[in-house]
């Protein structure tokens, strides 16, 4: 079994003028819920310069940890609030290449 984390990437297309509100909601969710979940390792929020989107990059210990997060009632309570501000596309995978200077 690999020690490599599972990477979850969520791409949110933000409704006009709602990027700041979405980022505030995602930060609150990360600070109060996500960081308490078993298997969570890290989360980064990336905001589009044009205000049209936010990417959530997160790492988890296992695919099962991602599925447990998705089914957690606290996460499910946040989803309708997020969907009021943006549409969501998601993918889970693993790193296959990386380079750093």
Automatic annotation (TrEMBL):
Residues annotated as transmembrane: none
GO terms assigned for molecular function: monooxygenase activity
One Pfam match: ABM
Keywords: Monooxygenase, Oxidoreductase
KW Oxidoreductase (keyword) present: yes
Domain of life: Bacteria
Domain ABM, chain residue ranges per copy: 6-97
Protein name as it appears in the record: Antibiotic biosynthesis monooxygenase family protein
């Amino acid at each position: 079994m690999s020690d490599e984390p599972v990477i979850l990437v969520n791409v949110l297309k933000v409704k006009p003028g709602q990027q700041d509100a979405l980022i505030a909601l995602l930060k609150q969710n990360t600070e109060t819920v996500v960081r308490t979940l078993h298997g969570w390792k890290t989360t980064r929020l990336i905001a589009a310069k044009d205000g049209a989107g936010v990417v959530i990059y997160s790492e988890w210990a296992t695919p099962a940890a991602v599925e447990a997060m998705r089914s957690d009632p606290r996460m499910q309570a946040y989803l309708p609030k997020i969907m009021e501000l943006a549409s969501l596309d998601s993918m889970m995978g693993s790193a296959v290449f990386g380079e750093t200077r």
